[in-house]
């Protein structure tokens, strides 16, 4: 019975790996989103999210936009 459980876990892990690899290889970039979802893309672009993964040495000199909700509180 333990061998079946281990085999099931291995099969699940392999399936997750192959599915995640297939999804990752189809990513075309955020600019492609604009074609079908311009309003959502613009909200995302001006939210500051595209700039979150920059090194601190680069980000501190960038003019990052603030989310709309913060503009009224500053």
Keywords:
74 residues; mainly alpha
**Average pLDDT for all residues:** 75
Radius of gyration: 21 Å
The CA-CA distance between the termini, in Å, is: 63 Å
Strand content: under 5%
Order of helices and strands: HHHHH
Number of helices: 5
Q: Please estimate the helix content.
A: 55-70%
Assign an overall shape.
elongated
- How is the main sheet built? none
The tally of domains stands at: 1
Number of strands: 0
Please state the structural category: mainly alpha
| Poorly predicted segments | none
Outline of the structure:
The protein is an all-alpha fold.
Describe the structure.
- This protein has 74 residues and is mainly alpha-helical.
- It has one domain.
- The model has no long low-confidence stretch (mean pLDDT 75).
Which helices and strands, and how do they pair?
Blueprint: H1 2-25, H2 33-36, H3 38-46, H4 56-59, H5 68-71
């Amino acid at each position: 019975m333990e061998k079946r459980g281990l085999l099931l876990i291995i099969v699940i892990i392999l399936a997750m790996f192959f599915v995640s690899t297939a999804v990752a290889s189809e990513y075309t970039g955020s600019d492609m989103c604009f074609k079908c979802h311009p309003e959502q893309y613009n909200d995302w672009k001006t939210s500051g999210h595209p700039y979150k993964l920059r090194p601190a040495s680069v980000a501190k000199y960038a003019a990052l936009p603030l989310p709309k909700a913060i503009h009224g509180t500053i």
